[in-house]
Amino acid sequence: METQQTASSSRTKGVACSSCWIREQRCQCCLVRFPVSESQYKLYAANGSPIKTYGTRVLTINLGLKRLCTWEFCVAEVERPIIGADFLKKNGLVVDLRNRCLTEEVLRTKILGSIHMSIGSITTVTHESDYHKLLEKFPDIKTPRRTDVHAKHQVVHHIETRRTPVAEHSRRLAPDKLKIAKAEIDLMIGQGICRPSKSRYASPLHMVQKKNGD
User: Fold this and answer.
1) 2-130: CATH number
2) 17-to-128, 141, 162, 178 alpha-carbon distances in Å
3) pTM over 0.90
4) One biological process GO term for this chain (predicted)?
5) For residue 46, is pLDDT > 80?
C-alpha cells in the first residue's frame, strides 16, 4: 500500500520526507534509499538474493496523520522506500487491506492508499540456513490441511466402547469464556474439523487464560 503526501519542514535528527512509501507488513525493517558507503549488514529478498545496505538514517516523515513520525531507517539498495512491521507496531498503525487505508489506533486517523502486489517480502535471515533447507524438503508441513478432501478408499476407523461412559456434570462457563468457546467451536465445525454430536462421551470444558491474554 502506498500514499503520496506533500513535503513538510525539516526537524531535528531527521528530514521530513514526501516520498512515495510502500507499506509492507512482511518486511521486518524499514528501508530508504541514499547514496552512502556500503555496510556489512545484509538483508535478503523473498527469493533469497542479498540486498546491499548502507547503514541507517533517522528521518521524520509525514504520512498525512495528525502527527509526524520519526524513525531510524535502514538505507538499502531498493527501488522504493519501504515501511516495515517495526514502524507500524511502534506507531500504532494498522493496515486495512479491505478498505485500502492505514489507520492510526489512538487518534483514529485514516489514510487512503492503493494496493500493489509486486513488492516481495524482505527479511534479515538468509534462506540458506539448515532450517530453510529442511522446510523446502518437506513443503507439506507448511500447507494447512484441507478438511474438504475425502478419502478415496473405504477404510473407516472405529473405537469400540463398552459399558456406561465416565462423565461429569456440566458446568456453566462465564459469559466471556462461553462466547470465546462458541466462536472457536463454530470455526472448527465450519472447517470440518469437528461436528455436532449427542454422544454421552463428554467432559466439561476447562479454559485457562494464556500469558499473552488469549
Assistant:
1) 2.40.70
2) 36, 43, 74, 49
3) no
4) DNA biosynthetic process
5) no
